[in-house]
Task: inverse folding
């Protein structure tokens, strides 16, 4: 398994592909993934493992990749440590760029499953964007995490707090009616 310095270094020269295709495994140091994420609240706990295959089908190039790694951060609800496993399967199709096709037009394609290449495929660039796009916006320890009490800060997963819940003034009269009915 090779360990390139940066994800952007991962490129495939199309003219060197044979009919048998290409299959490789590469590993990136945790620092490389940390640089990509550029988020101080995320700690990369394992190297980013990338297994990919590149198959030539006429002039078209099919790319399949599997990315695996792990991040540690805190739950956005209760602030306890949480580990996020990266397990991402990607497939894309690259077509040869047409003669005279401007590069900015290549970047404005409508179909995200189709890319264009000239002499080489910038596989690292594709993997980087897909990795970032597939990370969650918020990390939570579990779907039923109740978080912290906004008033006193007690972890509501461990128990309830003794805080008085403020009553919305719009429902104050209803609360009075409820109390009156409970007493009678």
Result:
């Amino acid at each position: 398994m090779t360990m390139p310095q940066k994800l952007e270094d991962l490129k495939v020269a199309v003219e060197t592909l044979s009919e048998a295709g290409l299959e490789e495994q590469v590993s990136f140091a945790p620092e490389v993934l940390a640089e990509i994420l550029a988020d101080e609240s995320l700690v990369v706990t394992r190297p980013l493992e990338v297994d990919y295959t590149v198959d030539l089908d006429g002039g078209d190039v099919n790319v399949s990749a599997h990315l695996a790694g792990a991040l540690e951060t805190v739950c956005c609800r209760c602030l306890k440590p949480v580990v996020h496993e990266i397990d991402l399967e990607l497939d894309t199709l690259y077509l040869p760029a047409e003669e005279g096709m401007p590069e900015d037009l290549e970047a404005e394609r409508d179909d995200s499953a189709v890319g264009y290449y000239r002499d080489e495929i910038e596989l690292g660039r594709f993997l980087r964007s897909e990795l970032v796009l597939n990370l969650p916006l918020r990390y939570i320890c579990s779907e039923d995490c109740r978080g912290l009490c906004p008033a006193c800060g007690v972890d509501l997963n461990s128990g309830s707090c003794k805080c008085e819940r403020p009553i919305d003034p719009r429902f104050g009269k209803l609360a009075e009616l409820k109390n009156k009915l409970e007493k009678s």
